[in-house]
Design goal:
There is one protein chain. α1 packs antiparallel against α2, α1 runs parallel beside α3 and α2 packs antiparallel against α3. About 8% of the residues have low confidence. The protein is built from 3 helices and 12 strands. The strands form 2 sheets. A 6-stranded antiparallel β-barrel has the order 1-2-5-4-3-12. A 6-stranded antiparallel beta barrel has the order 6-7-8-11-10-9. The longest helix is centred in the N-terminal third of the chain and has 40 residues.
Length: 248
């Protein structure tokens, strides 16, 4: 029986050691050491230990596959954003001007020709597809009033992506001085420098448009966390954006 136990454990660990990499490899080494101890235990206890190791193995593989999936998805999203075709019928170029004395919360978009642009079409920077804001209403002809990501009325479904490609979903809320991501789970490990992207789940914004980076995280009485977002205002110097029309 003990010989059978040894064969079972050896087969499992040979399999996982092929898939394991980095820190996961050292975890497998620890499991190997534990398996040697198991063979000296009574049969019934040894079988329980085997079950525990198998469960731990399955969790390790599951985590590894999920991380690999997230890495592939993020890479794909980055490529899609970089390769947007400006001649796409769903993308229209527009210039903009500020409301009042350089009010960063509301701007006016002007298209080269009159287009059928509707409320809640978003607009992005033409060079890197960073999200700038959303169309609110048509003023006249080819002029539209729009809210930027700094407007208190601007809300978006977002995800925060860390260096390890872990993602945390929450709600972005605009503010002229302190834009933030609200209602993060209190247990998530969000840190300074993590990136904020749209998820596209609400159907208003396309997915994976970059908004900004986390500059500070605050816990609200242990109930949830708030991540304050750093958004570079230098994009206001470009004076041109691309209006992204939602696909039906």
């Amino acid at each position: 029986m003990r010989t059978l136990i040894i064969y079972v454990i050896t087969a499992i660990l040979l399999n996982v050691s092929v898939l394991a990499a980095g820190g996961l490899f050292y975890k497998v080494k620890n499991i190997v050491k534990e398996s040697i101890v198991i063979t000296s235990l009574p049969v019934s206890k040894g079988l329980n230990e085997i079950q525990r190791l198998i469960n731990e193995y399955l969790v390790l593989i599951s985590v590894q596959k999920e991380n690999e999936h997230l890495r592939k998805q993020l890479t794909k999203c980055m490529l899609e954003c970089k390769n947007k075709d400006k001649n796409d019928s769903n993308i229209q170029e527009a210039s903009f001007s500020f409301k009042g004395n350089f009010d960063s919360t509301t701007i006016y978009l002007r298209t080269a020709k009159e287009l059928n642009i509707k409320k809640n079409y978003c607009f992005v920077l033409e060079d890197n597809m960073h999200l700038v804001g959303i169309v609110k209403e048509r003023i006249k002809n080819h002029i539209y009033k729009a809210y930027t990501v700094f407007n208190p009325s601007f809300v978006a479904d977002v995800k925060i992506v860390g260096d390890d490609n872990q993602t945390f979903r929450a709600l972005y809320m605009g503010n002229e001085y302190s834009p933030k991501v609200e209602f993060l789970d209190p247990n998530v490990e969000v840190k300074e420098g993590d990136s904020v992207y749209t998820t596209g789940e609400m159907g208003i914004f396309p997915p994976n448009l970059f908004i900004g980076t986390v500059k500070r995280v605050k816990s609200v009485n242990g109930y949830y966390k708030v991540a304050f977002v750093d958004i570079k205002r230098s994009f206001f110097n470009k004076w041109k954006v691309l209006i992204v029309c939602r696909k039906k």
